[in-house]
C-alpha cells in the first residue's frame, strides 16, 4: 500500500483506520448502547476501570485518549448511574480520585465485553487465518512505530 504525498485524504492510512475504528465501535454499540444507555466513550471508560480494577481520570485518558475534562464528566455520570463508585478517603481531589466498578458496573462490563468479544470473533472469522495474522502483525508494527516516533519526537527514516 504505497501512498504518494498527494493522495486524497480518504485514501490515507490514518483516515481509513480512524473511520474503520469508528465503524467497528458503533457496530458494537448498536448491540449494547440502547439496552444500557451508554455511549461508546462511556463504555470505554467503564471497561478501563473494570479491567484495571480501579482507575481515575489520568488512567482513563492514557488508555482511551479522551480529553481529561470529558473523562472527568464521564466518570461522574457513571458514578451517578451507579456503575462506578469512588472509594472513600483515597484522594482529596474529586477530579483525580480513583473509581472502581460497582457490582452493577461489573455486571454491565461483563455483558458488554461478551457482546464485543462475539462481534469481534464473527468479524475475524471473515478473514483467513493468514489474514488474521497479517492484521495482528501490521497493527503491532504500526503501534510500535508510532510509539517509537512519539518517544523520539522525530519522524522515522521512511518519512513517517
**Beta fraction:** under 5%
Q: Give the SSE order as H and E letters.
A: HHHHEEHH
- Give the total of domains: 1
Strand order of the largest sheet: 1-2
Shape: globular
Low-confidence stretches: none
Radius of gyration: 19 Å
Total strands: 2
Number of helical segments with 4 or more residues:
6
Distance separating the two termini: 14 Å
**Name given to the CATH architecture:** Orthogonal Bundle
Helical percent range? Answer: 55-70%
- Give the CATH topology: Arc Repressor Mutant, subunit A
Would you write up a description of this structure?
The chain is 65% helix and 2% strand. The protein is an all-alpha fold. The chain has one domain (9-126): Arc Repressor Mutant, subunit A (Orthogonal Bundle), CATH 1.10.10.10.
